[in-house]
Design brief:
Largest sheet: 7 strands, mixed
Distance between the termini: 57 Å
Radius of gyration: 24 Å
Number of helices: 17
Helix content: 25-40%
Length: about 550
């Protein structure tokens, strides 16, 4: 009878070579060069993976070892941290919280004498039931229960580093000495991180069809993906913001009917995949794009598998991109600003754009796990998710691994682009946007426009950029209208959101006082609105009800 390893190896190119110790078991590739320098650490639990896919652990180890060898041939050094090993399993024997995994990871780095920096990558393979995902509930004024998000970023901070205390005080330091804050952050972050996601529980698809195939695609492209021309699609109410996001990006020239396009960007609801006249040329264009960038709505409903634009004239919600279009795409990179754009926990392959794309053609994916924020403010032409993704997508072309690019972007954004009085929202944004796929992948381009990238250091503001009234104008209108009561403030703001900013069907949801110790410093007032898809808008004000910033869900 044939050995099961012989049968499996025929279908898995990453199990062809044998790595065994004297006991005949597959050995773990975790030796570190004498100089203590490696490019990355693969962080997983091979026993947990073997159970998820109902295969032998040796098979999983052999596949990962083959991937490490393939990367080595490309000049990239990975080592494996396997939580199934006895010495590592002790960390999680009683407590499988993310803090236990965090401690194991940092102890591994210290015990192995690995020299790390933000250029060093940690590549997590598996979801929460393989390597725990840090979660936190943020109160950002949109949901009385708060927003529970996934935060792999927290793994990057040193053992014993009090992230909450530090980042809760960083805003005050930022006002006086932002360069000190940036230096402190750079020293506190030990590495960058990304994850190859999987749904929890036993998997329907095989190891070869998911992780094995992903490994093969990365090595086939030499850990380097084309990014010469991309496609961007936007919901119609964010046309100007999207034009700001795309201004330095190499986009494919769109030959579609001009009614579907605004400044080289597809706009929805005009760009709607249920419009047969639009769909055919759209598919042809998708087949030519190296990367995809979506400033569209998302949804947490299991049946809502795509990204959406505004309602059309008939009141129908329009889909600008859906899972069914993925087979027509060659793009290796997908970045999205949509709410729930990177959802995967609790979803199967067919109900998660992230899972369907990363196990299709996409090798690197960046998106949000919960509500993503946009912002109307006096200081910035766009805020939160739009600014973060603009900065990151431009930085993709600067060379280096994409994991390092995202981490540097988060530091720069947090230090330089926190809109006044909204540090919590900036912190929320950098926490919930995560990378999926190998973080050492880098982009190559022959496009001169992309090569001219320079990191954004000052916000760009064009007078009249918004289609809405400015906050300065709104402030003047509010100042003489507001009573001393919160009830009056909420009513006046509700009217202004409709008249000045064009939000439709604005309905009051909640209000809270913002206190600094025992002193009232302002209010946060939240409303529901309808603008293609249901959303939330939150207004930050001073103690007299004068708005300082307006945030909305995407």
């Amino acid at each position: 009878m044939a050995d099961y390893r012989d049968i499996l190896s025929k279908s898995n190119p990453f199990a062809l070579r044998s790595y065994s110790d004297s006991s005949g078991k597959s050995s773990i590739r975790n030796s570190v060069p004498v100089n203590g320098t490696v490019n990355g650490i693969i962080f997983t639990d091979t026993l947990a993976l073997s159970k998820k896919f109902s295969i032998a652990r040796d098979y999983v180890i052999s596949s990962i070892n083959s991937y490490i060898d393939g990367c080595s041939e490309l000049g990239i050094s990975y080592i494996l941290l396997d939580m199934s090993d006895t010495e590592n399993a002790a960390f999680i024997a009683k407590d499988r919280s993310w803090l236990s995994y965090h401690k194991a990871l940092h102890s591994f780095i210290e015990n192995k004498g690995i020299r790390t920096s933000i250029s060093t990558s940690v590549f997590v393979i598996g979801g929460d039931d393989v390597i725990a995902v840090p979660h936190w509930v943020f109160d950002i004024g949109f949901d009385e229960n708060g927003c529970r998000i996934q935060i792999d970023l927290w793994y990057c901070f040193s053992n014993g580093f009090d992230v909450h205390t530090y980042l809760n005080t960083i805003y005050q330091q930022q006002k006086t000495a932002p360069e000190n804050v940036e230096r402190e952050l750079m020293s506190a972050l030990r590495f960058n991180i990304s994850r190859l996601p999987l749904p929890n529980g036993i998997q329907e698809l095989s190891f070869d069809a998911t992780i094995g195939d992903y490994f093969k695609r990365v090595l086939d492209c030499g850990m380097s993906v084309d990014a010469n021309a991309g496609i961007m699609a936007t919901a119609k109410q964010w046309l100007r913001e999207s034009a700001f996001v795309s201004e330095n990006l190499p986009l494919l020239p769109l030959n579609d009917d001009e009614r579907y396009v605004y400044k080289g960007i597809y706009r929805s609801p005009d760009a709607n995949i249920y419009d047969a006249e639009f769909l055919k040329p759209y598919i042809e264009t998708l087949a030519d794009a190296d990367y995809l960038l979506f400033n569209l709505h998302g949804d947490d409903g299991k049946e809502c598998t795509g990204y959406y634009g505004n309602e059309n004239a008939q009141g129908e919600t329009c889909t600008a991109f859906d899972i069914d279009l993925l087979p027509y795409c060659k793009a290796s990179v997908l970045n999205t600003m949509a709410c729930y754009g990177a959802r995967y926990e609790g979803y199967d392959m067919r109900s998660s754009m992230l899972l369907s794309s990363i196990y299709g053609s996409v090798l690197s994916f960046v998106g949000a796990s919960n509500i993503a924020l946009g912002c109307c403010g006096r200081k910035y032409p766009c805020g939160c998710s739009e600014t973060l993704l603009k900065m990151y997508t431009e930085r993709m072309f600067a060379g280096g691994g994409l994991g390092e690019a995202l981490l540097k972007t988060k530091i720069e954004y947090l230090v330089n682009f926190s809109v006044i009085d909204t540090f919590e929202n900036a912190y929320y944004t950098i926490c919930e946007f995560n990378m999926f796929g190998d973080p050492l992948i880098h982009c190559r381009t022959i496009n001169a426009k992309a090569k001219s990238f320079r990191p954004i250091m000052q916000p760009k503001y064009e007078p009249g950029f918004y289609a809405y009234a400015s906050l300065d104008e709104t402030y003047e209108r509010v100042r003489n209208l507001v009573d001393d009561t919160l009830d009056e403030i909420t009513k006046k703001l509700q009217k202004l959101l409709s008249l000045d900013y064009g939000f439709k069907d604005v309905k009051f949801k909640s209000a809270k006082k913002n206190m600094l110790g025992s002193t009232l410093v302002g209010y946060t007032v939240s409303y529901a609105y309808s603008w293609g898809r249901a959303g939330m808008v939150s207004v930050r004000t001073d103690k007299n009800g004068n708005p300082s910033a307006i945030f909305y869900t995407k």
